[in-house]
Prior knowledge:
The structure holds two protein chains of two kinds.
Chain A: H1 12-41, H2 47-59, H3 64-79, H4 85-102, H5 107-122, H6 128-141, H7 146-169, H8 175-198, H9 203-222, H10 230-233, H11 239-256, H12 261-272, H13 274-283, H14 287-309, H15 317-333, H16 342-354, H17 359-367
Helix pairs in contact in A: 1-2, 2-3, 4-5, 6-7, 7-8, 8-9, 9-12, 11-12, 11-13, 12-15, 14-15, 15-16, 16-17
Chain B: H1 6-14, H2 19-22, H3 25-29, H4 34-47, H5 56-65, H6 84-96, H7 103-117, H8 136-148, H9 154-166, H10 184-196, H11 205-213, H12 234-244, H13 253-262, E1 270-271, E2 278-279, H14 280-297, E3 307-308, E4 313-314, H15 315-318
Antiparallel strand pairs in B: 1-2, 3-4
Helix pairs in contact in B: 1-4, 4-6, 4-14, 6-8, 8-10, 10-12, 12-14
Amino acid sequence: MQHGVKRISLSEQARKEKIQRDKLKIANYRALCKDLLDKKDKDVRDIATLQATTDLLLKNPEFYTIWNYRRDIIVALVDAEKIKKKDTLEDDLKLIVALLKRYPKCYWIWNHRIWCLDQLQQTREANWNVELAIVSKFLDLDSRNYHCWQYRRFVINNMEEDTLLESSESSNLGQKEARALLRINIEEYKFTTSKINKNISNFSAWHNRTKLIPKIYDLFGELDTTNDHADVRHVFARPQTILQHELELVKTGMFMDSDDTSIWLYLQWLLTNPFFVDDLRKVSPTCYLDVLNAQLAIVEELNELEREDHPKGWDHRWCLRCILLIKSLIREETSEIGALDDMSRKMLQSLTEIDPLRKCRYLDQLEGTGTLSSLAF
Amino acid sequence: MTQLFKQKHVEYVQNLNSQISQDSYEYWLLEHLRLNGIYWGVVALATMDNLKALPENEVFDFVLSCWDSRSGGFGAFPRHDGHILSTLSAIQVLLIYNRLDDPKVVDKKPAIVKFIKELQLENGSFQGDRFGEVDTRFIYTAISALSILGELTEEMSRPAVDFILLCQNFDGGFGMVPGAESHAAQVFTCLATLAITGQLDRIKPEKTAAWLSDRQVEGGGLNGRPEKLPDLCYSWWVMSSLSILGKAHWVDFTGLISFILKCQDPNGGISDRADNETDVYHTCFALAGLSLIEMSQKLKEFGLVPIDPVYCMPTSVTRKFTNYTQQ
Lengths: 377, 327
């Protein structure tokens, strides 16, 4: 699979030169492969072979069979007490960092890192703080790397598990535990904020927020006293206060770059998720409606600005979609469920023109029942 | 470019194993994907109705030479370890050539089935091999393989589907594990699993379809996640997902076709984006994606063979074993 590699066409001369250069490389590589696969067939598990797997993996880190063989060798040598488990695995972690710098999207490398950490964790020797620092560094290099974000959640899960293990050994169960978990998750929440501040389009960060927020709220709820985390405690007082805080952030984002998909998706989460909506309904009978109307006014204001900027005075695609969403939420909230009103029909009509890539979707929606699900929110 | 260079793409697939290819160091570095590559090449040819362009018996022998007797699964190359990904590729290629009933395959079938079944974990997910990597890709791969072999049971599919549903996010998409960000290729694996197991009614199709249609960006190409660059392989992952939901028309075909055709190398092969290096993976998914577009439009602009969006094989092949009804 080639991704993002420019197509080049070599001259006849250059092609011949490459064939010459490659001849020796191919011969060396194939000899190394054959040697290792022969040893693997014979179940050879010694230090020299372990070293040979390093040589081959440096040439080709995608060679999953060799990673497998390497793991089998490590386990066998550790069992036979020929190598020290912790030292060997920590050396592997260093090797992996070097490889990841060159191949940050290679599944097999990340997979081996996770295996190493799982092994270390069995004896509680994994250093998750180091792992968190490393993955932060990789996210500095590519803030959307799917593997990195997944690995980060893996690290956080393990930190949480460590915390639970530690507190189950102490007498003060519950409070201490919740406090430690809270600290980890608030740090993560702040990490997503820093990523978003650097680049508002980082949906990976917004996504993580949708997972972290309800969790942090629940953890605050488990504490008897809440003197910790004074900087964010007021935000997490209840879903309503979180919502207000996040809506401010989204507002800044949408006025900064109205074409960004991330903020509109996140706004959809804020306005429709039961975590928030249920709480707003508890605050007062009209609280949810008030929030919806306030957001409607903001998005309509932004849409006006966009229309002024547009050469043909067109509505803004995302604003219009958001207005449509909020209006249908208001409709459902005020129990006027039923067919689309004329205004919504008009909006869907104009979406077929201003967002022609999704024309047929809007046409289907015009044909639909006008409920939220038929509007695909 | 407004034309599909079919003959050139056929030759491209035929030449993947040529001496010229083998003279290049990179060819040897890709052994770990060889069987997957055969599957992509075979599907590309089948989509162009030109399966005969490869020597069937050689392909058959090669596939069987990749079988790993220790694990019971297929590796990607002779002597490589069995893995769920290459195992599905092997089964698919054998099925396309109608060779699953060959005695040499029938011999191995119990071991293959055992290999796949033992990869299922307690939480319903599947690991890719004995080393524990979990990903919704592997769930699809296992469920798809078992269903082709007629070995899928309710007992296996129920927990697998429960796990898949945990991977769905608020945006309607699915990630690789619970908690992970939505990603169009993972959406395909999850929807196709739900389709095979007859559980599509457990999600709201409009929401997922809306997220999928939002993957189309200016220029007509599709991306895999919000605010990412378009990449041709999503012409398959997104289009197959939308087709499974009966909403293929929720993207603009004219723009997408134009994006795909621009990714062609006039000398054969198709790349992730215009003017990039070609490979068989993108060649396969470009053609399969175009076929889905043709099916949805009920047109025959490119004369491609209809492809099953769930199994990524010709419908003439999947019809033999599946009762999955086409939308």
